[in-house]
Amino acid sequence: MTGTTPTGAASNRLTLDGETVAFEEGESLFELARRHGDAVSSLCFDDRLEPLGACRLCAVEVEGQARPVASCTTLAHAGMVVRTRTADLERHRRILTDLIVSENPTGAAIDSLRGSASQELAQLAGRYEADGRRFGGARSGASRADDANPMILRDYDHCISCYRCVRICSEQQGDDAISVGGRGFRTRITTEFDGLLADSACTFCGQCVQTCPTGALADRRALEHAETPGELAATRSICPYCGVGCSLDILTKGERIVGVRPAPDGPANEGALCVKGQFAWEWVQHPDRLTNPLVRKDGELVEASWDEALDRAAEGFREVAAAHGREAVYAVASGRAPHESAYTIQKLVRVCFQTNQIDNCSRS
User: Fold this and answer.
1) Are strands 294-297 and 256-262 parallel, antiparallel or unpaired?
2) Residue 125 and residue 99: Cα distance in Å, rounded?
3) Domain 104-223, what architecture?
4) Which pLDDT tens digit goes with each residue over 98-114?
5) Could you tell me the pLDDT band of residue 119, with boundaries at 50, 70 and 90?
6) Cα(30)–Cα(64) distance, rounded to whole angstroms?
7) 46 burial level (CB within 10 Å; 0-12, 13-18, 19+)
8) Can you give the pTM of this predicted structure?
9) What fold characterizes domain 13-85?
Protein backbone atom coordinates (compact mmCIF):
# COMPACT_ATOMS: atom_id res chain seq x y z
CA MET A 1 0.00 0.00 0.00
CA THR A 2 3.03 2.23 0.25
CA GLY A 3 2.73 5.37 -1.85
CA THR A 4 -0.96 4.96 -2.68
CA THR A 5 -3.38 7.84 -2.31
CA PRO A 6 -6.83 7.06 -0.94
CA THR A 7 -9.99 8.39 -2.42
CA GLY A 8 -12.07 10.80 -0.41
CA ALA A 9 -12.91 14.43 0.11
CA ALA A 10 -10.27 16.99 -0.80
CA SER A 11 -10.44 18.29 2.78
CA ASN A 12 -9.09 14.97 4.08
CA ARG A 13 -5.50 16.15 3.95
CA LEU A 14 -2.79 16.87 6.47
CA THR A 15 0.92 17.56 6.54
CA LEU A 16 3.11 14.56 7.28
CA ASP A 17 6.83 15.26 7.65
CA GLY A 18 6.53 18.31 5.41
CA GLU A 19 4.45 16.59 2.72
CA THR A 20 0.74 17.13 2.12
CA VAL A 21 -0.98 13.74 2.10
CA ALA A 22 -4.55 12.48 1.93
CA PHE A 23 -6.06 10.14 4.50
CA GLU A 24 -9.09 7.91 4.80
CA GLU A 25 -11.84 8.66 7.30
CA GLY A 26 -11.03 6.81 10.52
CA GLU A 27 -7.37 6.20 9.59
CA SER A 28 -4.85 6.52 12.41
CA LEU A 29 -1.63 8.49 12.13
CA PHE A 30 0.26 5.21 12.53
CA GLU A 31 -1.52 3.64 9.56
CA LEU A 32 -1.13 6.79 7.50
CA ALA A 33 2.61 7.05 8.19
CA ARG A 34 3.14 3.39 7.40
CA ARG A 35 1.21 3.68 4.16
CA HIS A 36 3.51 6.52 3.10
CA GLY A 37 6.62 4.49 3.76
CA ASP A 38 7.49 5.64 7.27
CA ALA A 39 7.74 2.51 9.38
CA VAL A 40 6.97 4.04 12.77
CA SER A 41 8.28 1.80 15.56
CA SER A 42 5.89 -0.16 17.74
CA LEU A 43 5.93 -3.23 19.96
CA CYS A 44 2.28 -3.41 21.01
CA PHE A 45 0.67 -2.98 17.57
CA ASP A 46 -0.81 -5.82 15.51
CA ASP A 47 -3.08 -5.15 12.52
CA ARG A 48 -5.58 -7.68 13.84
CA LEU A 49 -5.91 -6.03 17.27
CA GLU A 50 -7.53 -2.88 18.52
CA PRO A 51 -4.87 -0.15 18.99
CA LEU A 52 -3.64 0.02 22.58
CA GLY A 53 -0.97 2.75 22.65
CA ALA A 54 0.89 0.99 25.47
CA CYS A 55 4.50 0.90 24.31
CA ARG A 56 4.60 4.61 23.25
CA LEU A 57 7.28 3.82 20.67
CA CYS A 58 4.95 5.02 17.93
CA ALA A 59 4.68 8.53 19.45
CA VAL A 60 4.69 11.41 16.96
CA GLU A 61 4.64 15.18 17.29
CA VAL A 62 1.42 16.97 16.36
CA GLU A 63 1.58 20.73 16.06
CA GLY A 64 -0.49 22.32 18.84
CA GLN A 65 -0.11 19.32 21.18
CA ALA A 66 2.05 19.91 24.25
CA ARG A 67 3.49 16.38 24.19
CA PRO A 68 3.98 13.61 21.63
CA VAL A 69 0.91 11.41 21.07
CA ALA A 70 0.62 7.69 20.36
CA SER A 71 0.09 7.54 16.60
CA CYS A 72 -1.75 4.20 16.72
CA THR A 73 -4.59 5.64 18.84
CA THR A 74 -4.68 9.12 17.29
CA LEU A 75 -6.96 9.53 14.28
CA ALA A 76 -5.95 11.72 11.37
CA HIS A 77 -7.81 15.02 11.04
CA ALA A 78 -7.77 17.63 8.30
CA GLY A 79 -5.12 20.32 8.71
CA MET A 80 -2.93 18.42 11.15
CA VAL A 81 0.82 19.02 10.99
CA VAL A 82 2.52 15.76 12.01
CA ARG A 83 6.20 14.94 12.46
CA THR A 84 7.31 11.33 12.82
CA ARG A 85 11.09 11.82 12.64
CA THR A 86 12.73 14.43 14.84
CA ALA A 87 15.76 14.39 17.12
CA ASP A 88 13.51 14.47 20.20
CA LEU A 89 11.39 11.57 18.95
CA GLU A 90 14.43 9.45 18.15
CA ARG A 91 15.83 10.15 21.63
CA HIS A 92 12.45 9.19 23.12
CA ARG A 93 12.41 5.89 21.17
CA ARG A 94 16.02 5.11 22.03
CA ILE A 95 15.40 5.56 25.77
CA LEU A 96 12.25 3.42 25.65
CA THR A 97 14.08 0.69 23.76
CA ASP A 98 16.92 0.76 26.30
CA LEU A 99 14.40 0.46 29.14
CA ILE A 100 12.59 -2.46 27.52
CA VAL A 101 15.76 -4.36 26.69
CA SER A 102 17.19 -3.80 30.18
CA GLU A 103 14.18 -5.56 31.70
CA ASN A 104 14.69 -8.77 29.74
CA PRO A 105 17.67 -10.22 27.85
CA THR A 106 16.25 -9.90 24.36
CA GLY A 107 18.76 -7.44 22.92
CA ALA A 108 20.61 -10.15 21.04
CA ALA A 109 19.05 -11.66 17.91
CA ILE A 110 16.64 -14.49 18.67
CA ASP A 111 15.94 -17.41 16.32
CA SER A 112 13.35 -16.37 13.74
CA LEU A 113 11.83 -19.87 13.83
CA ARG A 114 10.21 -18.91 17.14
CA GLY A 115 7.45 -16.98 15.38
CA SER A 116 6.69 -14.50 12.62
CA ALA A 117 7.01 -11.42 14.87
CA SER A 118 9.79 -12.74 17.10
CA GLN A 119 12.41 -10.42 15.57
CA GLU A 120 10.67 -7.11 16.28
CA LEU A 121 12.40 -6.24 19.56
CA ALA A 122 15.74 -7.62 18.39
CA GLN A 123 15.57 -5.44 15.27
CA LEU A 124 14.61 -2.40 17.31
CA ALA A 125 17.47 -3.06 19.74
CA GLY A 126 19.86 -3.27 16.81
CA ARG A 127 18.59 -0.02 15.36
CA TYR A 128 19.19 1.87 18.62
CA GLU A 129 22.21 -0.18 19.73
CA ALA A 130 20.43 -1.13 22.95
CA ASP A 131 22.11 -3.91 24.92
CA GLY A 132 20.27 -3.57 28.24
CA ARG A 133 23.18 -2.22 30.26
CA ARG A 134 22.16 1.43 30.36
CA PHE A 135 19.27 0.88 32.77
CA GLY A 136 20.35 -2.35 34.43
CA GLY A 137 18.21 -3.50 37.34
CA ALA A 138 15.36 -5.82 38.24
CA ARG A 139 13.90 -8.12 35.61
CA SER A 140 10.40 -9.49 35.22
CA GLY A 141 9.06 -12.71 33.79
CA ALA A 142 9.84 -16.31 34.63
CA SER A 143 9.84 -19.06 32.04
CA ARG A 144 7.57 -22.05 32.50
CA ALA A 145 10.03 -24.87 31.97
CA ASP A 146 7.52 -27.17 33.67
CA ASP A 147 5.02 -26.70 30.82
CA ALA A 148 6.11 -29.59 28.64
CA ASN A 149 3.37 -29.32 26.02
CA PRO A 150 4.90 -30.26 22.64
CA MET A 151 3.79 -27.16 20.74
CA ILE A 152 4.26 -23.82 22.57
CA LEU A 153 7.42 -22.83 24.44
CA ARG A 154 6.65 -20.40 27.30
CA ASP A 155 10.01 -18.64 27.55
CA TYR A 156 8.82 -15.71 29.66
CA ASP A 157 12.34 -14.55 30.47
CA HIS A 158 11.92 -12.69 27.17
CA CYS A 159 8.45 -11.29 27.93
CA ILE A 160 8.04 -7.48 27.88
CA SER A 161 4.37 -7.42 28.95
CA CYS A 162 3.11 -5.99 25.66
CA TYR A 163 -0.05 -8.14 26.10
CA ARG A 164 -0.34 -8.90 22.40
CA CYS A 165 -0.65 -12.61 23.16
CA VAL A 166 -3.43 -12.04 25.71
CA ARG A 167 -5.30 -9.69 23.40
CA ILE A 168 -5.12 -11.89 20.31
CA CYS A 169 -6.32 -14.87 22.33
CA SER A 170 -9.30 -12.81 23.46
CA GLU A 171 -10.05 -10.50 20.52
CA GLN A 172 -9.35 -12.88 17.65
CA GLN A 173 -9.77 -16.40 18.98
CA GLY A 174 -12.34 -15.71 21.69
CA ASP A 175 -10.67 -18.26 23.95
CA ASP A 176 -9.37 -16.06 26.81
CA ALA A 177 -7.05 -18.95 27.67
CA ILE A 178 -4.26 -16.67 28.90
CA SER A 179 -4.33 -13.50 30.94
CA VAL A 180 -2.15 -11.06 32.88
CA GLY A 181 -1.29 -11.66 36.52
CA GLY A 182 0.64 -9.60 39.06
CA ARG A 183 1.88 -6.02 38.97
CA GLY A 184 5.13 -4.20 38.33
CA PHE A 185 8.10 -6.54 37.95
CA ARG A 186 5.86 -9.38 39.10
CA THR A 187 3.63 -9.01 36.05
CA ARG A 188 3.37 -12.28 34.16
CA ILE A 189 1.36 -13.97 31.44
CA THR A 190 -0.60 -16.80 33.00
CA THR A 191 -3.56 -19.15 32.69
CA GLU A 192 -6.39 -19.74 35.12
CA PHE A 193 -4.93 -20.88 38.47
CA ASP A 194 -1.45 -20.32 36.98
CA GLY A 195 -1.52 -23.79 35.45
CA LEU A 196 -0.32 -25.49 32.29
CA LEU A 197 -1.62 -24.66 28.82
CA ALA A 198 -2.98 -28.18 28.36
CA ASP A 199 -5.16 -27.69 31.45
CA SER A 200 -6.51 -24.33 30.27
CA ALA A 201 -8.93 -23.25 27.56
CA CYS A 202 -6.00 -23.07 25.09
CA THR A 203 -6.74 -24.66 21.69
CA PHE A 204 -3.08 -24.45 20.61
CA CYS A 205 -3.90 -22.36 17.57
CA GLY A 206 -0.49 -20.68 17.82
CA GLN A 207 -1.83 -17.13 17.41
CA CYS A 208 -0.01 -16.02 20.56
CA VAL A 209 3.24 -17.40 19.17
CA GLN A 210 2.92 -15.54 15.88
CA THR A 211 2.13 -12.16 17.45
CA CYS A 212 4.83 -12.21 20.16
CA PRO A 213 7.46 -9.55 19.29
CA THR A 214 10.23 -11.05 21.42
CA GLY A 215 10.01 -14.82 20.98
CA ALA A 216 8.87 -15.29 24.58
CA LEU A 217 6.23 -17.59 23.13
CA ALA A 218 7.73 -19.89 20.54
CA ASP A 219 6.98 -22.76 18.20
CA ARG A 220 8.63 -25.78 19.84
CA ARG A 221 8.34 -27.97 16.74
CA ALA A 222 9.98 -25.40 14.51
CA LEU A 223 12.77 -24.78 17.01
CA GLU A 224 13.71 -28.45 16.82
CA HIS A 225 15.05 -27.56 13.36
CA ALA A 226 16.99 -24.47 14.44
CA GLU A 227 20.29 -26.23 13.73
CA THR A 228 19.23 -27.52 10.32
CA PRO A 229 21.69 -26.05 7.80
CA GLY A 230 20.54 -23.75 5.02
CA GLU A 231 18.84 -20.43 4.47
CA LEU A 232 15.29 -20.06 5.73
CA ALA A 233 12.79 -19.70 2.87
CA ALA A 234 9.01 -19.24 2.86
CA THR A 235 6.67 -20.65 0.21
CA ARG A 236 3.01 -19.60 0.08
CA SER A 237 0.58 -22.51 0.04
CA ILE A 238 -2.84 -23.65 1.27
CA CYS A 239 -3.41 -25.75 4.38
CA PRO A 240 -4.56 -29.25 3.33
CA TYR A 241 -6.40 -30.25 6.51
CA CYS A 242 -9.95 -29.13 5.71
CA GLY A 243 -12.03 -27.31 3.14
CA VAL A 244 -11.63 -23.77 4.57
CA GLY A 245 -8.53 -23.13 2.49
CA CYS A 246 -6.34 -21.20 4.97
CA SER A 247 -3.30 -19.54 3.44
CA LEU A 248 0.04 -20.28 5.05
CA ASP A 249 3.75 -19.99 4.43
CA ILE A 250 5.74 -23.23 4.50
CA LEU A 251 9.18 -22.60 6.01
CA THR A 252 12.02 -24.64 4.57
CA LYS A 253 15.77 -25.03 4.83
CA GLY A 254 17.01 -26.70 1.71
CA GLU A 255 14.62 -29.57 0.98
CA ARG A 256 13.39 -29.87 4.56
CA ILE A 257 10.24 -28.32 6.02
CA VAL A 258 11.08 -26.66 9.33
CA GLY A 259 7.86 -24.84 10.21
CA VAL A 260 4.62 -23.19 9.15
CA ARG A 261 3.31 -19.66 9.58
CA PRO A 262 -0.19 -18.31 8.93
CA ALA A 263 -0.47 -15.80 6.11
CA PRO A 264 -1.68 -12.44 7.47
CA ASP A 265 -3.14 -11.58 4.07
CA GLY A 266 -4.88 -14.93 3.62
CA PRO A 267 -8.46 -14.24 2.42
CA ALA A 268 -9.95 -17.19 4.31
CA ASN A 269 -8.00 -17.04 7.57
CA GLU A 270 -6.49 -13.51 7.82
CA GLY A 271 -3.48 -14.71 9.79
CA ALA A 272 -5.18 -17.46 11.81
CA LEU A 273 -4.69 -21.22 11.82
CA CYS A 274 -6.02 -24.09 13.89
CA VAL A 275 -3.79 -26.47 15.83
CA LYS A 276 -3.50 -28.81 12.84
CA GLY A 277 -2.57 -26.12 10.37
CA GLN A 278 -0.06 -24.53 12.74
CA PHE A 279 1.68 -27.53 14.24
CA ALA A 280 0.81 -30.76 12.37
CA TRP A 281 3.18 -30.43 9.42
CA GLU A 282 5.84 -33.01 10.25
CA TRP A 283 3.89 -35.86 8.64
CA VAL A 284 5.12 -34.61 5.25
CA GLN A 285 8.65 -35.86 5.92
CA HIS A 286 7.94 -38.39 8.67
CA PRO A 287 9.90 -41.65 8.23
CA ASP A 288 6.70 -43.69 8.71
CA ARG A 289 4.90 -41.91 5.86
CA LEU A 290 3.97 -44.26 3.01
CA THR A 291 5.74 -43.41 -0.22
CA ASN A 292 4.63 -46.44 -2.26
CA PRO A 293 1.34 -48.37 -2.58
CA LEU A 294 0.88 -51.49 -0.46
CA VAL A 295 -1.15 -54.58 -1.38
CA ARG A 296 -1.88 -57.63 0.75
CA LYS A 297 -0.28 -60.89 -0.35
CA ASP A 298 -0.48 -64.04 1.77
CA GLY A 299 -1.79 -61.94 4.64
CA GLU A 300 1.08 -59.44 4.53
CA LEU A 301 1.23 -55.89 3.17
CA VAL A 302 3.96 -55.55 0.57
CA GLU A 303 5.01 -52.73 -1.74
CA ALA A 304 3.54 -52.76 -5.22
CA SER A 305 3.48 -50.64 -8.37
CA TRP A 306 0.72 -48.09 -8.87
CA ASP A 307 -0.68 -50.14 -11.75
CA GLU A 308 -0.93 -53.26 -9.62
CA ALA A 309 -2.47 -51.38 -6.68
CA LEU A 310 -5.06 -49.60 -8.84
CA ASP A 311 -5.97 -52.85 -10.63
CA ARG A 312 -6.47 -54.53 -7.24
CA ALA A 313 -8.73 -51.66 -6.08
CA ALA A 314 -10.77 -51.69 -9.30
CA GLU A 315 -11.27 -55.44 -9.09
CA GLY A 316 -12.45 -55.11 -5.49
CA PHE A 317 -15.07 -52.51 -6.48
CA ARG A 318 -16.29 -54.73 -9.32
CA GLU A 319 -16.63 -57.75 -7.04
CA VAL A 320 -18.64 -55.79 -4.45
CA ALA A 321 -20.95 -54.30 -7.09
CA ALA A 322 -21.48 -57.69 -8.72
CA ALA A 323 -22.25 -59.42 -5.42
CA HIS A 324 -24.31 -56.77 -3.67
CA GLY A 325 -25.45 -54.27 -6.28
CA ARG A 326 -24.10 -50.90 -7.30
CA GLU A 327 -25.56 -49.16 -4.22
CA ALA A 328 -23.17 -51.17 -2.04
CA VAL A 329 -20.45 -48.76 -3.15
CA TYR A 330 -20.21 -45.21 -1.83
CA ALA A 331 -17.41 -42.65 -1.38
CA VAL A 332 -16.40 -39.95 1.09
CA ALA A 333 -14.04 -37.36 -0.39
CA SER A 334 -11.23 -36.06 1.78
CA GLY A 335 -11.16 -32.38 2.75
CA ARG A 336 -7.38 -32.61 2.31
CA ALA A 337 -7.72 -33.50 -1.37
CA PRO A 338 -7.44 -30.87 -4.12
CA HIS A 339 -10.47 -29.89 -6.21
CA GLU A 340 -9.36 -32.10 -9.09
CA SER A 341 -9.37 -35.18 -6.86
CA ALA A 342 -12.79 -34.30 -5.41
CA TYR A 343 -14.16 -33.91 -8.94
CA THR A 344 -12.66 -37.25 -10.00
CA ILE A 345 -14.08 -39.24 -7.08
CA GLN A 346 -17.61 -37.93 -7.59
CA LYS A 347 -17.28 -38.70 -11.30
CA LEU A 348 -16.21 -42.25 -10.46
CA VAL A 349 -19.27 -42.84 -8.27
CA ARG A 350 -21.82 -41.14 -10.51
CA VAL A 351 -20.61 -42.49 -13.86
CA CYS A 352 -19.11 -45.89 -13.04
CA PHE A 353 -21.62 -46.96 -10.38
CA GLN A 354 -24.48 -44.67 -11.48
CA THR A 355 -25.44 -43.54 -7.99
CA ASN A 356 -25.23 -40.29 -6.06
CA GLN A 357 -23.70 -41.89 -2.97
CA ILE A 358 -20.88 -39.41 -2.60
CA ASP A 359 -20.18 -37.16 0.40
CA ASN A 360 -17.23 -35.22 1.78
CA CYS A 361 -15.60 -34.34 5.10
CA SER A 362 -15.00 -30.67 4.27
CA ARG A 363 -16.96 -29.36 7.23
CA SER A 364 -15.55 -27.09 9.91
Assistant:
1) unpaired
2) 10
3) 2-Layer Sandwich (3.30)
4) 999 988 765 556 788 99
5) very high
6) 18
7) buried
8) 0.83
9) Ubiquitin-like (UB roll) (3.10.20)
